[in-house]
């Protein structure tokens, strides 16, 4: 297995709540992180905002363009679901051979619920893989709420379900997940299984709304 513990991780579309939270969490466990944006000025502002919320800590996070973030050794796609595949495709040369982690959920608000949408290949991650066939795309982090990701003084507890068509992409993604204390990465097979994982987020959001909580996933029977 490639040793991925101390590499640089670029987060394309990292200026949203999910990208910002993940950047803080990854940086808090030792990764160098680049938050990417369509505007590097905006990325710099978001980094300042993120870092300022923990004045007593130091982080290795910088704000860059999406293209620069895509040049990192490993790349997370954190744009809205409908721009993941086109954004990845725009950087397909830069992303060749790399691990590209897609954290998108395709959801639509219907009344006061979120409903899962099913893209033509079944999942956003499969769509991204098709748009960058020479990259190793994995699906992960769908069920981790952005707010808790960014609250780095508390551990997040739960399972991160990981799918990819290449075993190396699954193994490397799990290695990153498990660098974060109390998170367990689970090998859930190929991207054919990404659709139910992405869609299940709609169920968690519904539980959160009804039970006024932040639910997460924990699979039993694997200890
Ligand atoms: N929010 C959560 O709790 C959560 C949890 C797990 C997974 N996710 C998934 O993670 C992803 C990011 O979630 P989020 O809530 O952070 O999303 P978001 O705030 O809606 O978007 C993230 C960033 O994507 C960029 N962006 C927006 N439209 C774009 C477009 N058309 N093309 C390229 N970039 C665009 C924007 O950055 P710039 O304007 O700076 O370029 C924006 O700040 C989503 O796919 C979501 O399903 C979210």
The separation of the N and C termini measures 23 Å
Fraction of residues in β-strands: 15-25%
Approximate shape: globular
Q: Which CATH top level class fits?
A: Alpha Beta
Cross-sheet strand order for the largest sheet: 3-2-1-4-5-8-9-10
In CATH, the topology is named Rossmann fold
Number of helices: 9
Q: Spans of 5+ residues with little confidence (pLDDT < 50)?
A: none
Largest sheet: 8 strands, mixed
SSE pattern, N- to C-terminal: EHEHEHEHHEEEHEHEHEH
Give the beta-strand count: 10
Oligomerization category of the chains in this entry: single chain
Question: Mind explaining what this structure looks like?
Answer:
The protein is an alpha/beta fold and 223 residues long. The chain is built from 9 helices and 10 strands. The strands form 2 sheets. It has an 8-stranded mixed sheet with strand order 3-2-1-4-5-8-9-10, with helices on both faces. Helix 1 links the parallel strand 1 and strand 2. The structure holds NADP nicotinamide-adenine-dinucleotide phosphate. NADP nicotinamide-adenine-dinucleotide phosphate binds at residues 13, 15-19, 37-39, 42, 78-81, 83, 87, 103-105, 141-142, 144-146.
């Amino acid at each position: 297995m490639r040793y991925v513990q101390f590499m640089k991780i670029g987060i394309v579309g990292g200026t949203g709540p999910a990208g910002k939270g993940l950047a803080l969490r990854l940086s808090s466990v030792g990764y160098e992180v680049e938050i990417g944006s369509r505007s590097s000025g905006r990325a710099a502002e978001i980094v300042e905002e993120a870092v300022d919320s923990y004045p007593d800590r130091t982080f290795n996070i910088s704000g860059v363009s999406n293209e620069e973030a895509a040049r990192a050794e490993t790349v997370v796609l954190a744009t809205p679901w409908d721009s993941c595949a086109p954004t990845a495709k725009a950087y397909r040369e830069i992303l060749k051979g790399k691990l590209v982690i897609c954290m998108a959920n395709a959801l639509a608000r219907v009344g006061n619920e979120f409903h899962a949408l099913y893209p033509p290949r079944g999942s956003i991650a499969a769509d991204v893989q098709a748009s960058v066939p020479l990259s190793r795309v994995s699906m992960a982090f769908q069920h981790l709420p952005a707010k808790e990701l960014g609250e780095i003084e508390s551990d997040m507890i739960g399972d991160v379900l990981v799918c990819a068509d290449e075993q190396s992409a699954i193994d490397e993604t799990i290695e990153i997940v498990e660098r974060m204390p109390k998170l367990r990465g689970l090998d859930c097979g190929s991207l054919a299984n990404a659709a139910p994982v992405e869609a299940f987020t709609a169920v968690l959001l519904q539980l959160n709304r009804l039970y006024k909580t932040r639910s997460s996933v924990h699979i039993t029977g694997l200890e």
